[in-house]
C-alpha cells in the first residue's frame, strides 16, 4: 500500500510498504477513505517529539471502512464505516473506566520510554505518533491496523459526508474538551483562545456553543483570524497590537475569565523559534518558546482557568508561576479523551449546530501530502486544514 513515511527530521515522503495485518484477535483493519494533517504532526516533522524512526507511518486523524476483524471483535463487522479516535484505549483499565481514555494503562507499553532522559512520561498509545506513544503505524496510508477495535472505532451513518465527521477523530473533541475544561458560566464569561489553527478554531466555536458571552481569538495570520471571526469570535492580531493591553481593554479591565492555549510548544514570538540542535535542548523549552502560555497566564482574570490543549513535552522553564499563584488560577491540560465526546459532538453535527468541514482549506491525494506538510507548517497559501484521500 501507499503511505506517508517519516524519513528524518523535516522530511516526509510517500513510499510503498506492506499492508498491515491483524496481530491480535481484538484488532481490525480499516481501509482509509479520508485522513488529515494535524498541527501535532508538525511536532514530529520538526523532530520536537523524539523517538521517531525512519520508516514510521504518520497520521492520527482518519476514517474509513472496516475490511477485516479479529476473532475477538464483537461490535464491528466488515463493511462498517467508522471514524477512529487518535488515542488508542483498552476500555477496561482504571483510567479508561473513569473516562480518561488518553491515559489508558494498556495501550502504550513505552509510556516511560523518555522518563530517564527528559522527565517525560507519555500517555495512551497514539496512531502515527512516535515510539514514545507506542510506535503504532498511522492513518496517512491506504490501510491501518486498529487495536482494541471494539473500543475506539465509532460507526457513522452513510448519510453523512466524510468531511462532516472526520474531525471527530481529534480536533473537534480537542477544541471542545478545552472549552469544557474552562467551566464556562453561560452568558457571562469571556474566553480568550491563543492560536487560530484548527484546534483554536474548534475551541472558539465550542466555547460559543457552551454559552461564552464573548470569545477573543489571538493569532497573527489574517486568514485564520478571519475564519475565527466568521465563527462569531472577536480577534487580536498579536503582530499589530499589544496582546495584554488589548485583552485588558476588551474585557473592561478584568481580563478574560478563561484562556485556552491552542498553540503549545512551538509558539511563535520573541524567541529563536527555529529547530534546536540536540534532543536535550529540544525538550527543554525556554522562556522564548512559551509566548502563548505566558500571555495566557498573564492575561487571565483572577480565579480563571488556563486550559491547555496545545501540546507540551519535556521540561518548560520560566513559567510565570508567581502570577498564576497570586491570581489563584486553575490549570487544565492534556491529551483529549476523544471517546468521551463522540456521542455529544455527533449530536451537535446532526442537529446542525456546527459543520466541522468549515476548517478545510486544502483537499488532495496522498502523493501531494509531503508538499502540503510544508505548506501547512509554513502557513502558506492560507492553509488551515488539509484533508487527504489516500486513493486519489
Ligand atoms: P497549528 O500549528 O495549525 O496552529 C497553531 C497556531 O498558533 C498557528 O495559527 C500559529 O500562527 C499560532 N501561534 C503561534 N504562536 C502564537 C502565539 N504566541 N500566540 C498566539 N498564536 C500563536 O496547530 P493546530 O492543529 O491548531 O494544533 C494546535 C496545538 O494543539 C498543537 O500543539 C497540537 O499539537 C495540539 N493538539 C493537541 C491535542 C490534544 O489532544 N491535546 C490534539 C490535537 C492537537
Ligand atoms: Zn491531531
Walkthrough of the structure:
By secondary structure, this protein is an alpha/beta fold. The chain folds into 2 domains: 219 residues, Quinone Oxidoreductase, Chain A, domain 1; 163 residues, NAD(P)-binding Rossmann-like Domain (Rossmann fold). The protein contains 13 helices and 19 strands. Strands 3, 4, 5, 8, 9, 18 and 19 form a 7-stranded mixed β-sheet that branches. The protein has a 6-stranded parallel β-sheet with strand order 12-11-10-13-15-17, sandwiched between helices. It is globular. The relative contact order is 0.16. Bound molecules: nicotinamide-adenine-dinucleotide and zinc ion. Zinc ion (ZN) binds next to loops.
Task: Categorize the overall geometry.
Answer: globular
User: What is the CATH level 1 assignment of the largest domain?
Assistant: Alpha Beta
Count of helices?
A: 13
Please tell me how large the radius of gyration is.
Answer: 20 Å
- The named CATH superfamily of the largest domain: Medium-chain alcohol dehydrogenases, catalytic domain
Structural class: alpha/beta
- Please count the beta strands (DSSP E, at least 2 residues each): 19
Query: Largest sheet, if any?
Result: 7 strands, mixed
The end-to-end distance, rounded to whole angstroms, is 13 Å
Bound molecules: nicotinamide-adenine-dinucleotide, zinc ion
Question: Looking at CATH, which topology of the largest domain would you report?
Answer: Quinone Oxidoreductase, Chain A, domain 1
Cofactor: Zn(2+)
EC number: 1.1.1.-
Family: Belongs to the zinc-containing alcohol dehydrogenase family.
Protein name: Zinc-dependent alcohol dehydrogenase
